[in-house]
């Protein structure tokens, strides 16, 4: 992150670094993080961002569990940074959250039903 902060703030890399730093450390916004992850200026930025993907996915799951009892797999995939792979969305959630937070998966309607979060 120190390297990102030293970049010229007016260059594409500097703008990217500023947005990345803000979404990881200030707002903790997984949607913006994964948008930046898929649209970064250099592959080295993606390699650096790989260190934060699990953290941002856990934050996304936490927010979705509080906000939704169920959500479309596509929408959950956007939050988790996964495109066009429904099975991968479910497997990521099951791998990161133990015990699982998924009550059921409705393949007909493409929905994930979350367990109600306990206080």
TrEMBL record:
This is Uncharacterized protein.
